[in-house]
Amino acid sequence: MHHKIGIRWTLMFCMVCFLAILIPKISMAAPDSAVGIVLMHGKTGQPSVFSGIVGPLRQAGYLVETPEMPWSKARYIDKLYEDALNEIDLSVNTLKQKGATRIVIAGHSMGANAAIAYAAYHGGVDAVILLAPGHSPDAQGSVNLFASDVAKAKAMMDKGDGAQNSSFSDSNNGQYFTRIMKADIYYSFFQPDGIASMRKSASLLPANLPVLYVAGSEDPLTARNGKTYLYNLLPENALTRYVVVKAPHMGTPGAAIGEMLNWLAELVKQ
């Protein structure tokens, strides 16, 4: 009798030890639904534009990275568009190292432009969020406005002076200005049929990729483009949506947090 009790206690002790070893490993493993989000600011902006939404996203369990991009106020614009997209890889890899198994690329204004381009040209993205997408070099208004500057940059490149600085025109949120930058960098951002064309990127997105497009009701870009410029070109998916929130261009990210959380919750269930 005592012998059987001893065997039983020995087996129970071994089982407890086994669970003690196993449980920490299970708790450290990332769930299949772990979602990492890269949030990119707009032209001449800073990651702080997302200060009102990063907290709620992290509290909801999402991993979030907010890199400073080459079009920030401090860096504007310091590398080719293609090289700017490569920087996003750093944030994606950081999220994966933290346990993310699904990647959402999101951005505001110019950051939204980069989000859709990254999904189109780099791939490996599970969803895209566009917040008041801006910088549309292929829109007719932009084509007309920057045609002479694009031609100037191309002429410099053709002469072998693409790495030389010159003064070029730009606009942001209704403001027009000139900046000194290298000709090849300017051309990479403003060529109408280049990699910065959001319509071109949309046509290259993987089939069935879910996209949340949030527009601001008081944003001139919304009134100008509506759904016609970009949204109607996005891949068909049950989760792809066009939502209008009451906000101006710069206020769209903050006003969109509720829509983002609801949409992400649906994404996780897929």
Cα gyration radius (Å): 23 Å
Query: Given the C-alpha coordinates, what overall shape results?
Result: globular
Alpha-beta content class: alpha/beta
Look up the CATH topology of the largest domain: Rossmann fold
Tell me roughly what share of residues is in helical segments. 40-55%
CATH superfamily membership of the largest domain:
Alpha/Beta hydrolase fold, catalytic domain
**Spatial order of the strands forming the largest sheet:** 2-1-3-4-7-8
The end-to-end span amounts to 55 Å
Major sheet details: 6 strands, parallel
CATH architectural group of the largest domain: 3-Layer(aba) Sandwich
Structure description:
By secondary structure, the chain is an alpha/beta fold. The protein folds into two domains: 1-30; 35-138 and 193-269, Alpha/Beta hydrolase fold, catalytic domain (Rossmann fold). It is built from ten helices and eight strands. The protein has helices spanning 2-28, 51-59, 81-97, 110-121, 140-158, 183-190, 198-203, 220-225, 252-255, 257-269; strands at residues 35-40, 63-65, 102-108, 127-131, 165-172, 175-182, 211-216, 241-245. The strands form two sheets. The chain has a six-stranded parallel beta sheet, sandwiched between helices. The protein has a two-stranded antiparallel ribbon with strand order 5-6. Strand 3, helix 4 (110-121) and strand 4 (127-131) form a beta-alpha-beta unit. The longest helix has 27 residues, at 2-28. The relative contact order is 0.13.
